């Protein structure tokens, strides 16, 4: 009897068929890769397919189809890249109904911004799961393989449906709107601060303990070629309005986000310059540079004609304002959008 190694050939063939049949029954997950540390090595950035091949456990979780949209570090991600990524994911979901979920591999520095953008622009209730890594793929104690695997597990989980875009790293599931990267290099860098995680990815199961309440898929970017420019101006002791003037007059910003003091204010000098530009129709959103808690509308007390950014970080408020300006410039309508999303 012929053998393959020590296994009879008919048994080897039967095992191969059974394995293929088992694989065919697994959910189909589309991996849309953008680069980042998760695919990086000391000798260069790998294709996401090479990363997936090095993680055998993935084959027990899902059938993967991998597509590389771009291959860059997260610091090089642009607004144009966001539009390309959102369009491609919408296209995949419209044309391939058998896809159960999407995993986006991404660099760590801007993954929170990309996630929020996708949460606002991807029209689906299927899971959109972004993941990143703090340590390069082939280095000691890399978190890249584990994060990749856990992201696929979440995308394949029935419980992940209808929760908008998610960021999955270090066994933790965070909502796109709430998450931020808070530590430079340690693995526990991502958190949702005062809101908290949605759930966890343990060895035996994916568990959600709560769900986001804010709506998603609010903006149609199908015909949008370019988003309005919005800049962020940081508040600090003694700041004047020079950077605000420069952003509008020289950089041609169509809107501004103020990373204000934790109580939601700029300096008196900044407030005066803001009033002047708001009077000319420039939308200005006030946020909190501290990163936790809502800014409170104090217009009735202080007369500051601002849009209030709720508890969004400055970088998330910028994402929402860019999209909102494709729909309206009316301050009251913009305020409703910030209260809603």
Describe the sheet with the most strands: 8 strands, mixed
Quick one: CATH superfamily of the largest domain?
L-asparaginase, N-terminal domain
State the secondary-structure class.
alpha/beta
Strand order of the largest sheet: 6-3-7-8-9-10-13-14
CATH architectural grouping of the largest domain? 3-Layer(aba) Sandwich
In total, the number of domains comes to: 2
Describe the protein in words.
- The chain is an alpha/beta fold and 341 residues long.
- The chain folds into two domains: 27-208, L-asparaginase, N-terminal domain (Rossmann fold); 230-340, Rossmann fold (3-Layer(aba) Sandwich), CATH 3.40.50.40.
- It contains ten helices and 18 strands.
- The chain has an eight-stranded mixed beta sheet with strand order 6-3-7-8-9-10-13-14, with helices on both faces. A four-stranded parallel beta sheet has the order 15-16-17-18, sandwiched between helices. A two-stranded antiparallel sheet has the order 1-2.
- β4 (40-41) and β5 form a beta hairpin.
- The protein is elongated and about 90 Å long.
- The model has no long low-confidence stretch (mean pLDDT 91).
